[in-house]
Amino acid sequence: MQTRIFANHQGDNAHEEILRLLDANHDGSEKDGIPVLLTVQVDSVSKGQDDKLIPANVAQAINFYQIDGLLHG
Q1: Would you list the domain boundaries of the chain?
Q2: Alpha-carbon torsion 69, 48, 41, 14, what sign?
Q3: Most exposed: 41, 45, 47, 63, by fewest CB within 10 Å?
Q4: 17 to each of 5, 14, 26, 46, 53, how far by Cα in Å?
Q5: Angle (CA) 22 26 29, round 5°
Q6: Count of alpha carbons within 13 Å of 71, Cβ hemisphere only?
Q7: What's the CA gap between 15 and 20, in Å, rounded?
Q8: What's the pLDDT at 60?
């Protein structure tokens, strides 16, 4: 199992790392659409944006969002 943390401005890096980790034979042919059992976001979008759409390859998604507190949504 792999765990990585990426800041909100590192989306491209996170995407590349996921594809790299899932490329079992290291031939660079892994594509998007990989089945995902669960994704968890913490205050994942900027004000005025929306993350309601869950891609078809994601079975379950959780979004932690708070108006007050350390993280401001």
Answers
A1: 1-32, 35-73
A2: negative
A3: 47
A4: 11, 5, 12, 23, 22
A5: 75
A6: 13
A7: 9
A8: 93
32-61 pLDDT tens trace = 888 889 988 876 666 666 667 888 999 998
Tell me how far apart the alpha carbons of residues 58 and 35 are, in angstroms, rounded to a whole number. 6
CA 49 – CA 59 distance, rounded (Å): 22
Q: What digits encode the pLDDT tens for the residues 16-40?
A: 998 888 887 888 887 888 888 998 8
Look up the pTM and report it: 0.53
Q: Is the Cβ–Cβ distance between 27 and 4 less than 8 Å? A: no
How far is 38 from 63, CA to CA, in rounded Å?
Answer: 11
